[in-house]
Amino acid sequence: MGGRPSSPLDKRRQQHLRGQVDTMLRDLLPCYREQLAASVLRQISRELGPQEPAGCQLMRSKKLPRVREHQGPLTQLWGHPPRWQPIFCVLRGDGRLELFSHREEYENGGHPLSSVALTGYTVLTSQREYLCLLDALCPIPSGEHTQEEPEPLLEMPVNFPLFLQHPFRRHLCFSAATGEARRAWRLALQGGIRLRGTVLQRSQAPAARAFLDALRLYRQRRGHFGEDDVTLGSDAEVLTGVLMRELLPALRAQTLPGLRGASRNRAWAWTELLDAVHAAVLAGASAGLRAFQPEKDELLAALEKTIRPDVDQILQLRARVARRLRVEVEGPLESCLRGRVDTQLSRVTQKLLSTVGAVLSTVQTLLAQGMDRLSRHLRGSPSSTRLRQEVYSFGEMPWDSELMHACYREAERSQKRLGQLVAPFGFFGTRSLVFGAQDLAQQLMADAVATFLQLADQCLTTALDCTQAAQQLEKVRGRVLKKFQSDSSSARRRFIRGWSLCIFLPFVLSQLKSSCKVELPEFEGEVLAVGSPALTIEGIYEDIVRGVLLQRIDGDEETEAQRGTCPRQPGSGAEVQPLCSQPPPGTSTAASRPHLSSFPSDK
Question: Which Gene3D superfamilies does the record cross-reference, listed alphabetically (predicted)?
Answer without folding.
Answer: Pleckstrin-homology domain (PH domain)/Phosphotyrosine-binding domain (PTB)
